[in-house]
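Q: Hi! First time doing this. I have a protein sequence and I read that you can turn it into a structure. Is that right? Here it is:
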Amino acid sequence: MHPLLIILLFIFFSQAINARDTITPSHPLADNEILVSADGRFALGFFTPGSSNNRYIGLWYNAITDKTPVWVANRKNPVKNSTGVLSISGNGNLLITDQSSTVAWSSGVANVTNPVAQLLNSGNLVVRDSNFSDGEFAWQGFDYPTDTLIAGMKMGVDFVTGLNRTLTAWTSESDPSPSQYYALLDIHGDPQLALCSGSKMVYRAGPWNGLRYSGIPGTVTYYGFNFSFIDNKKEISYSFNTIPSVLSKLAVNQSGVLQRSLWVQDSELWNIIWYAPMDQCDYMPPCGPFATCNPNNSPICDCIQGFKPKSPNKWMYRDATDGCVRKTRLDCNNGTDGFLVLPNTKLADTSNVTVDMSLSVDECRVKCLSTCSCTAYAPADVRNGGSGCIIWTHELTDLKMFTSDVYGQEFYVRLAAADLG
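A: Yes, that's right. Below is the predicted 3D structure, encoded as structure tokens:
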């Protein structure tokens, strides 16, 4: 082994051994100190972003060369100089104060008998009772993500606590305060991952289909990942974990792009393996109702079989925002309608759908046919041949087509018999 590498490894492990991972009421963290997790993987302390002079408490990967913070405590309220202190009060409230004892940030936690703040090996800064190392946490930083989702951290809504964990981009490289760009789980209808700018949804990854988000088919090719999607009465959440040799993060950058990165140790760089919006079809809604979008076609928009442009004159000039309308009215009462199978799709917007996980795919088809307002259906879970039932009873929007049979999933659009050809 190269002598320099031996020296660097020695320094790294010496720091991990000598550095502490806890803050107590009698032992706060000064500006010139850092916490290091027990395994040396993460570090937490004060930092100055970009060209700013402000100081923030941040979390970064200690074991790699890139020290860009993946979590920031006081992103809205910096300390103006290097006199900041991170402390914990006698009842468990984390505080960031300056030399005049002015509070820049507070975790708001109280009523912990013997409080200690600890940086865990996962990167989670937690507050707990020092007498119960394996007990529940009174507060945890993972409940308040910044712009980045790391392994073990959740996005989504906790119905018990009322927390809605979102990712919000920094304003700039020198200012970690929240910008207009954020990613969240839209829990209406069938929950889906969405990227927003202000009040406008600009990208939709689609619902979780048991294996992946409908609009991110490449997820199934990722090596060393374990994805979790929970949808029950207590929470709707998304998270991931990786094997020890894989370091990954999901982040919203300052330009409003959601991106998945992998750390490449040999080149010491983050390699972006996926991002969105990626093409014209990713921007909502590119083609209007009852139209499909295929980024490999020109023009990219096309009416679904059985539909025609609502505004033919606009369509001639490749303005498809008005979408399409049916050529033939449905005939629900006589039961002559059928279904067009669209393979390899990102499912249409699911924010207003109904979901019944107790139904089989065949039962889902019957339910759609017997519901006169039903416009389409799809299995909610694609595993093992499909199960569960998603029912659309409104316009179909943001329907994207993939070219590969490996990607996307089948979508069943209701048509009149005359248009089934």
